[in-house]
Amino acid sequence: MGLSLCRRLCDSSPSRTTPPPLSPSSLSPFSPLSTTPSMRLSALLHSPPVVPGNPCSLWSISEKSPHLQVSDGGVCVWRQPVEQSSDAIRSSGGIRTGLHLWEVAWEADERGSHALIGISTRKSPRQASGYTALVGGDSQSWGWELSSNELWHKGKEAGRYPAGAEHPVVIPEHVVVAVDADAGTLGYVVEGRYLGVAFADLPKGEELFLAVSCVWGRASIRLRYLGGMSRDPPSLMSLCSLSIHQTMGRSRVSLTDRLPLPPMLQRFLQAHQWPVNTSS
């Protein structure tokens, strides 16, 4: 039934007929750079985040550079003001299968050069001398450098991201990382806009971790795992949530308070606040 409803949503989505109503999110500079996510990714992006405390939401206290300190219950990492060092850290929990989302909060004025967000295996180094793109600096990691918009893998620049942009594009504080371990792809969501596949060569079946690397002294980076789903069709609840979000858009935040809905349903509809564009 879920698969049938999934197909029906694809056929009856408002994006196939008329453009969505103009909203503040439509004015995002990332709107013309975004691509249409898959139905699975759309459903996951519109699902409420998992409760805090999931191992994937925590930075690892062992898989990190000695110049990095984990604090605030494991969700925040802070870099010591050390010169001539590139430092990386991985999430405590890894994934081998399924589609997964992480949100990384990293203020723009705490990045400097070589500020990378991506994915790595356990084999990727966690510290290097000098200033370098550490996540993406070997064959076991894939990274997006936020300041220059460069993609890095195997120690080489692998192009600019997002495609079609006049680089560099200023990347805001919050970046969502989308990893499809089954397909071996890595992409990013910024201001609710899916910017497309950045890498399509992640190893399948190997444990993958969210990873960041930086060189900026006193940089503070926060992590939150938002959720995941298997290869199976999205749940009926997630598909219903997606359909409602596509129809109501951002107006759901104010409308659900005025509609005669049970409190539990109101909380469910308002649980995920960011407006994800599934039509451009």
Explain how this protein is built.
The chain is of the alpha+beta class. Helix content is 16%, strand content 31%. The strands form two sheets. Strands 1, 4, 6, 7, 8, 9, 10 and 14 form an eight-stranded antiparallel beta sheet that branches. It has a seven-stranded antiparallel beta sheet with strand order 2-3-15-5-11-12-13, with helices on one face. The chain is globular and about 60 Å long. A hairpin with a 4-residue loop joins β2 and β3.
In brief:
This protein is an alpha+beta fold and 280 residues long. It has helices at residues 2-12, 39-45, 236-248, 252-258, 263-270, and strands spanning 59-64, 68-71, 76-79, 85-91, 99-106, 116-120, 127-129, 141-145, 150-153, 156-160, 174-180, 185-190, 193-199, 209-214, 220-229.
**Averaged pLDDT:** 84
**Percent in helix:** 10-25%
Q: Structural class, judged by helices and strands? A: alpha+beta
Radius of gyration: 19 Å
Which geometry do the CA atoms define?
A: globular
Strand % is 25-35%
Gap from first CA to last CA: 27 Å
Helix/strand order: HHEEEEEEEEEEEEEEEHHH
Could you name the ranges where pLDDT drops below 50 across 5 or more consecutive residues?
1-25, 273-280
Number of helices: 5
Count the E strands: 15
Main β-sheet: number of strands, strand sense, barrel status? Answer: 8 strands, antiparallel
